[in-house]
Amino acid sequence: MPSTLVVLDLVGIFVFAISGALVAVRKQYDVFGVLVLAGTTGLGGGFVRDVLIGATPPAALADWRYLLVPVAAGLVTFGFHSTLGRQERLINVFDAFGLALFCVTGALKAGDYGLGPVPSALMGMVTAIGGGMVRDLLAGRAPVVFRSDLYATPALVGGAIAVVGRDLGFPLIMVAGTGALVCLVLRLLALWRGWRAPMPAGPSSV
After folding, report:
1. CA distance linking residue 147 with residue 185, whole number of Å
2. Looking at residue 79, what is its pLDDT?
3. How many CB atoms are located within 10 Å of the residue 139 CB?
4. Three-state helix/strand/coil letters over the chain
5. Conformation bin of residue 37: beta by default, left when phi > 0, alpha when psi is -120 to 50
6. Per-domain residue ranges for the chain?
7. Strand partners, 196
């Protein structure tokens, strides 16, 4: 993976790990629980992506930095949780930044391994939502992606922009930044405006 993508990947892991650690703090988990949620949130999506595209062993196991970053994020959150955990919105903002970074790094890495534009964009989405899904399941709450919030769609759009932009020959940092920015703006607008995916019409008892 190019060094630029590695840096973006590590930054995404850090911010996603903070969101996982904040959820653990709110659930009153001990330090081990905080580190577990930080690690699974930061690494879960990339682990699944690497297995699916054949990038084995996964980066989380082959590069020590991928293990150190979520541990550091978990410890920082554990030590300063009284400051970080005061606002519910903070978790959603960190989660949105992680979503934006992971959707582009996942999509671009999938492209490096020979996948076409559509599968690469899907791998970007999987990378972005995988860790959050594991976090929510371990925390005993319905995953955000299943709660009708616009969550997976911004990740898919951001990943698609990054893949198409690189295929058209634009610089890597430009396409990564554009895809991440579009994903971030869509996700934050969805949180602010209450945009939701369509729900089934009529009574829910079928």
Report:
1. 19
2. 87
3. 17
4. CCHHHHHHHHHHHHHHHHHHHHHHHHCCCCHHHHHHHHHHHHHHHHHHHHHHHCCCCCHHHHCHHHHHHHHHHHHHHHHCHHHHCCCHHHHHHHHHHHHHHHHHHHHHHHHHCCCCHHHHHHHHHHHHHHHHHHHHHHCCCCCHHHCCECCHHHHHHHHHHHHHHHHCCCCHHHHHHHHHHHHHHHHHHHHHHCCECCCCCCCCCC
5. alpha
6. 3-193
7. 149
pLDDT band at 144 (very low <50, low <70, confident <90, very high): confident
Which pTM does this prediction carry? 0.85
Amino acid identity of residue 58, one-letter, is: P
Place of tokens 């405006």: 193
Angular region, 87: left φ>0, alpha ψ -120 to 50, beta rest: beta
Lookup result for tokens 């959707």: 103
CA 93 centroid distance within chain = 12
